[in-house]
Design goal:
alpha/beta, homodimer, Rossmann fold, elongated, six-stranded mixed beta sheet, 12 strands, DNA-binding transcription factor activity (chains A, B), repressor (chains A, B), 12 helices, 434 Repressor (Amino-terminal Domain), DNA-binding, transcription cis-regulatory region binding (chains A, B), transcription (chains A, B), LacI/GalR-like_sensor (chains A, B)
Chain lengths: 328, 328
DNA sequence: CTGAAAGCGCTAACAT
DNA sequence: ATGTTAGCGCTTTCAG
């Protein structure tokens, strides 16, 4: 425990005024004579004074920090989302405390335990773990993105169902007869399942089998490639794939090409997400684009309302858009 | 300023002991009778007590937070780097405060102003702005990644010079006669320039012109595409490109293909970075891979040393690796 | 084994 | 226009 740092008291001493006055100068509050202001400023300069943020936070019971609890930032969707959240929060005067759970429930709990203890003014969550009770036990303002957490926590999500329909419909319109879908394993409480539901409903309406290959979010690329290879082996007739995210779509295309398939001639592929980075690196991918920036914006708006005490409940569903790449 | 939260004092009251005792139970310090411990625990449960992190931080003059100051997280290199830094810092008991400057000096300064005020225990920086003085003015432990900040701040970087040579050499070995390079505009104090220097030296040794097209980090994809189109118009003879990062490499390939070039037949391209996300989405890109995870690890080690007061100076340079994709 | 009291650095009533 | 004082919630000497 060090304590050499110059503090408000030292400035006061040098300037020959009281701590209150220095505090007032610092916060532009109350009436000050210009002379005093100058003296104080000079003393601050002289001492290289830096107000201690923590002390202020303790007093104000406010940290101007918002926690972001997501699986990882090393992924096109989350990278853009977190960047945008950071951007929007910055505007509102908040800084961001990162809490990437790596899909590890222990880590998610560890973050929560700490964050809920007055460390942040609010939380935006989008991690994929289940059954974490702590979210219920708190008064902290929370908003969720693309994840159902508990019923009093508002969710901001894209219209996943519509997206699922668009993707499937596009493949059907393209004349695909055997369309396969990829998604998470059942059981994760994610609006992602709506993509699957839409696919299944549409296939059923056409009296066609709905086949979903399940892929864990945190499998390695190699494991995913293995699954997709299996897909083509088990279903050589497949002529259309609706992948639940662009990374999987990309891997499927790679695997298919290695197996001699030509895209879109032999096989059509539609992805999901349409994040900046994927659009830059893989513009030829046809995909359902989520309005990621808008989602971030809306989440921050909701959170801000909750923080100032307004009753922001209910969820927000944002429209998606089909981006024509060339793979479908 | 709210103050309903249950605090240590409330727990003490319910348990019928003093604040000191509760604090001791909380921190497993000193001698306590089992009876007291149980009573206190029960009171905590009953009241849903959560120790206030900020108060503890104020007392201890330690936040267990590390600030990350980088341009953005929405980019394959920085996404992986920040994810990995988060990972390593988590291990050491630190949480991460994000400070993405968006290449905006004002924002970088705003972050610094705040972070240097006791908000974090240390800083890892890699933003690209110049001339920010505040880094010098502080006692805070700082480590930099791929950026020269000031002479007492250690830098962790890849061996950019070797990387630049490898890339250029590879293109020469491939038989390229007209190799063009892309890089940042001159003036940014980045080890990135070493890539350019290596390219220029090697070209000069072969008595070939060294031509560098300058591309701003934060230009839009469209602006970048325009520059690369210009590149092909002004230098139709080009048969090899060494891009200073994989995103540019990808854009160059796209532009070239649109102009009817076949890769690698008509044009060979080598990128730089080799981040996970690029490897997943664009495995066919030949690139110089930086050891991103290792860089994160070393940076955290250095920072940790500085935080505990060891004299960690000097810089770390890590080897790079050529990844054979197929574009060169 | 436990408690009283001081203090981390700052702010805001409430004086004057 | 400025100062005095109390206190944000916690930890830790120092006493007992």
């Amino acid at each position: 425990m060090k304590k050499q740092a110059v503090k408000l008291e030292d400035v006061a001493a040098v300037a020959g005024v009281s701590k209150t006055t220095v505090s007032r100068v610092l916060n532009h509050r109350g009436y000050l004579s210009q002379g005093t202001i100058d003296k104080v400023h000079q003393a601050m300069q002289e001492l290289h004074y830096r107000p201690n943020v923590i002390a202020r936070q303790l007093f104000q019971q406010k940290t101007n920090l918002v926690g972001l609890v997501f699986p990882t930032v090393d992924n096109p969707f989350f990278a853009q989302l977190e960047a945008q959240l950071d951007q929007e929060l910055y505007r509102q005067g908040y800084r961001v405390l990162m809490g990437n759970s790596q899909n590890n429930p222990e880590r998610e709990e560890a973050y929560l335990r700490q964050l809920l203890n007055g460390q942040v003014d609010g939380l935006i969550v989008g991690a994929h773990n289940e059954g974490i009770e702590q979210y219920r036990d708190t008064q902290l303002p929370i908003v969720s993105i693309e994840r159902w957490v508990s019923k009093d926590i508002p969710v901001v999500a894209a219209d996943n169902y519509a997206g699922g329909r668009m993707a499937t419909q596009r493949l059907l319109d393209d004349g695909c007869q055997h369309i396969i879908h990829t998604n998470y394993p059942h059981g994760l409480p994610s609006p992602n399942l709506e993509r699957r539901r839409a696919y299944e409903e549409l296939m059923q309406a056409r009296h066609r089998p709905a086949i979903t290959y399940e892929v864990n979010f945190d499998s390695t690329d190699e494991e995913k490639r293995a699954i997709f290879n299996r897909l083509f082996t088990e279903h050589p007739e497949v002529d259309g794939v609706f992948a639940d995210n662009d990374t999987n779509a990309s891997l499927i295309i790679q695997v298919a090409r290695k197996r001699g398939r030509h895209i879109p001639h032999d096989l059509k592929v539609v992805g999901f997400d349409g994040a900046n980075m994927t659009r830059t690196l893989l513009p030829e991918l046809t995909t359902i684009q989520q309005p990621i920036d808008e989602m971030a914006k809306r989440a921050v708006e909701l959170l801000q309302k909750r923080i100032v005490g307004e009753q922001a409940t209910g969820s927000v569903q944002l429209p998606v858009k089909l981006i024509d790449g060339g793979t479908a």
